[in-house]
Amino acid sequence: MENIVASLIIVGIKILVLLAIVLGLGAYLTLVERKVAAHIQRRPGPMVVGWHGLLQPLADGLKLLTKEDLFPRYGNKFLYNLAIVMALVPASLVFAVIPFGPEFEVFGIRVKPILTDVNVGLLLFFALGSLAVYAIALAGWASNSKYALIGSMRKAGIVISYEVVITFAAMGPIILAQSLSTYSIVQNQIDQKLWYIWLQPVAFVVYMFAMLAETGRVPFDVQEAEAELVTGFTVEYGGMKFGLFPLVEWYVETLSLSAIGVILFLGGWSSINIPFVGFFDPLFFLGPLSPFVWFLLKVGLVFLFVLWLHWTLPRYRIDQITSTAWKVMLPLTFVNLVFTALIAPLVWK
């Protein structure tokens, strides 16, 4: 009985910590993006509200909360509100299968820094992630606006195309690790002393570009092209409802896909095989915190890479986006799977 109570307490603490991290980071990643964009464009970005603009996300949140909540006259109110729930809840749930570090001990109890280590964790991740297309389709249709509907249909077409691509890109590391468990994939890379990016460079590049498409980032942001669709499927949303969609799509989803990319290709929390470092951990002085710091650093670098591309590349046309998915990226993943099948027995040894 005591073990059950202790386990429930640990799970409850994990949930609270996870929600605090995800929602807190989601808010402040808006500031990170504004600062990165500003420096790319040679300007300082937010500087007034707090030191170097540190309180700007709080000011933005208060502004959105105090705005009037309007609703389109001939829209479907139930589906209009349901779209927000379907966007936010699955995007938050995917973090349940993301491990943030190795197992550690607290008061004699072994704790894994993952909410649930199921043996089909990646399958659950992609299944929850695919629900985003329903939220976008509902938002566009329920708003009763041609701009919103066109934007949602564009986004649905992109997501359907790149869901297939990103899944096949992830198949290479899955085959090498012989597991769908996110924790096991990282542990296998540690045991084999090999990050899978060295064996899966093509899959990693495809994954990164598919991640841009999944999250609606440039050059794949045709669903909200301002000059054509006036922000697309969110055009009829106002106040905090308007703020939640970019928070989920641009930040929470990008963060979760960055974390999965680190788990699949960059060894998760492992410091083994880091370029120019080898098998020496330069953060050894942090002790047991070192793996957690490595994981956050890797996720942060992948996220910053996404921001760099977002503020550098031009926008593609919708036909270019879909044809690239089906005619270029998908065949590349098939070739990569054949290559993986040939080298997998060598890795398993």
Itemize the secondary structure elements and their pairings.
Elements: H1 2-40, H2 56-66, H3 77-93, E1 104-106, E2 109-111, H4 121-130, H5 132-142, H6 146-177, H7 182-191, H8 201-214, H9 226-229, H10 239-265, H11 290-310, H12 318-348
Antiparallel strand pairs: 1-2
Helix pairs in contact: 1-2, 1-10, 2-10, 3-5, 3-10, 5-6, 6-8, 6-12, 8-10, 8-12, 10-11
**Average pLDDT:** 84
Query: Radius of gyration in whole Å, from Cα?
Result: 21 Å
Helical segment count: 12
Q: Ranges with pLDDT <50 over ≥5 residues?
A: none
Sheet with the most strands: spatial strand order: 1-2
Secondary-structure-derived class: mainly alpha
Subunit structure: NDH-1 is composed of 14 different subunits. Subunits NuoA, H, J, K, L, M, N constitute the membrane sector of the complex.
Organism: Hydrogenobacter thermophilus (strain DSM 6534 / IAM 12695 / TK-6)
GO cellular component, one term: plasma membrane
Keywords: Cell inner membrane, Cell membrane, Membrane, NAD, Quinone, Translocase, Transmembrane, Transmembrane helix, Ubiquinone
